[in-house]
Design a protein that fits this description.
The protein is mainly beta and 282 residues long. The chain has one domain. Helices cover 13% and strands 33% of the residues. The chain has 4 helices and 15 strands. It has helices at residues 14-23, 30-44, 56-61, 271-276; strands spanning 85-86, 97-106, 116-129, 135-141, 144-149, 158-159, 162-165, 171-174, 181-185, 190-191, 197-210, 224-233, 246-251, 255-256, 262-267. Strands 1, 2, 5, 6, 9, 10, 12, 13 and 14 form a 9-stranded antiparallel beta sheet that branches. The longest helix has 15 residues, at 30-44. The chain is globular.
C-alpha cells in the first residue's frame, strides 16, 4: 500500500491458504495426532461412511481404555482386565492363519436378570493390505460357535453353553457367573500373508432379548459385557495347545450389551490410521 493509494489484497488459492495454515502448526506426537483424530471423528461424524449400527468413531473408541465395566472372574493381573489392548497386532510371526472371536461376561458388579439372553450376529474379520491399502474380508458368518469357558480360562476348561437359534439365523445365549461365553466365527480359520498385514479389524453385533416371553421382561436389570478380539493360529487346522499354536491379535473394549443392536470391535489401527483407512462397516 502506498500513501493515499488503494489497499490491494492478493487473493491466494484456497489450497495455498491450507498449506500455509498446516505449515504453521507445531509438530505433533503420535499420541497428540491420535487424540486429534478421535476428536475429529466425534465432532464431524463419519463423513466417509453411512453406518447403520457401526461407525468409524465406535471402532476407534472400542480400543480406548477403560472398559465400560469389569468382567466377573477375570484376575486383576490379566493385561486385558481393565481395558482394551493390542497383542501381536500386525506382526503374526510364525502364524499363518487367523480367526475372529468374542467373549461375553456377567459384570463384576452383578447381574439381577434371569430372563434375558444375549443375541449375537454377523461376526466378521478383515485385513488391511500393505500392497493395495484396501480392506479384504477374510471371514463372515451370521452365526457364531462357542462354549462356556471358565471365566479365567484356567486349563481351557469349558462346558456346552445355553444357546438358542434365532429366526434370523443368529444365536442367543444365557450367561451366568462362573463361566463366560467365548465365541468365534462359525466358519473355518482364514489364511493370512504375514508380510502383507497393515491392519486387522474384527467386529460383531449384539443385543439383549427376552428368554421366555411368558415371564417378565427383566432386560433393564441385565448387566452383561461383551468384548471383541482375534487370534493368529499356526495354520488352518491347528488345535489349542496352551499358547503354542495361537496368540491373540488384540482385545477390544468390554461394553454393556443393550436392548438395541450395537457393534463391538477390535482393531490394530490407531485412531489416526482409522481415519486414514476407514474399515468396512454396517
Amino acid at each position: 500500500m502506498t500513501p493515499g493509494g488503494d489497499i490491494r489484497v492478493q487473493k491466494l488459492p484456497i489450497l495455498s491458504l491450507l498449506v500455509v495454515l498446516v505449515s504453521c502448526r507445531p509438530a505433533q506426537t503420535a499420541k497428540q495426532k491420535d487424540a486429534i483424530a478421535l476428536n475429529e471423528l466425534s465432532s464431524y461424524g463419519d463423513l466417509l461412511q453411512n453406518p447403520r449400527v457401526n461407525s468409524t468413531q465406535t471402532i476407534a473408541n472400542d480400543m480406548q481404555p477403560p472398559h465400560e465395566g469389569a468382567p466377573h472372574g477375570v484376575p486383576r493381573h490379566y493385561n486385558w482386565a481393565f481395558g482394551p489392548r493390542v497383542g501381536m497386532g500386525n506382526n503374526p510371526g510364525k502364524f499363518a492363519a487367523m480367526t475372529a472371536w468374542g467373549q461375553v461376561y456377567v459384570a463384576a458388579t452383578g447381574n439381577a436378570a434371569t430372563n434375558t439372553r444375549i443375541q449375537i450376529r454377523d461376526i466378521k474379520s478383515y485385513v488391511l493390505s500393505k500392497r493395495d491399502n484396501k480392506w479384504h474380508l477374510l471371514q463372515s458368518s451370521k452365526q457364531v460357535d462357542g462354549n462356556a469357558y471358565r471365566e479365567d480360562f484356567a486349563g481351557d476348561i469349558s462346558i456346552p453353553a445355553n444357546v438358542r437359534r434365532e429366526q434370523d439365523g443368529s444365536i442367543s445365549v444365557k450367561v451366568d457367573k462362573g463361566y463366560n461365553y467365548h465365541f468365534w466365527c462359525a466358519c473355518s480359520k482364514a489364511t493370512i500373508d504375514g508380510d502383507n498385514i497393515k491392519g486387522v479389524f474384527t467386529t460383531v453385533q449384539a443385543r439383549l432379548v427376552v428368554d421366555n416371553p411368558q415371564k417378565p421382561d427383566d432386560r433393564a436389570q441385565a448387566r452383561y459385557l461383551l468384548s471383541m478380539g482375534g487370534d493368529y493360529w499356526l495354520n488352518l487346522t491347528a488345535k489349542w495347545d496352551n499358547g503354542k499354536t495361537n496368540a491373540d491379535i488384540g482385545i477390544g473394549k468390554f461394553k454393556y450389551v443393550k436392548n438395541q443392536w450395537q457393534a463391538f470391535n477390535m482393531t490394530t489401527l490407531s485412531p489416526t490410521a482409522i481415519r486414514r483407512h476407514p474399515p468396512p462397516i454396517q
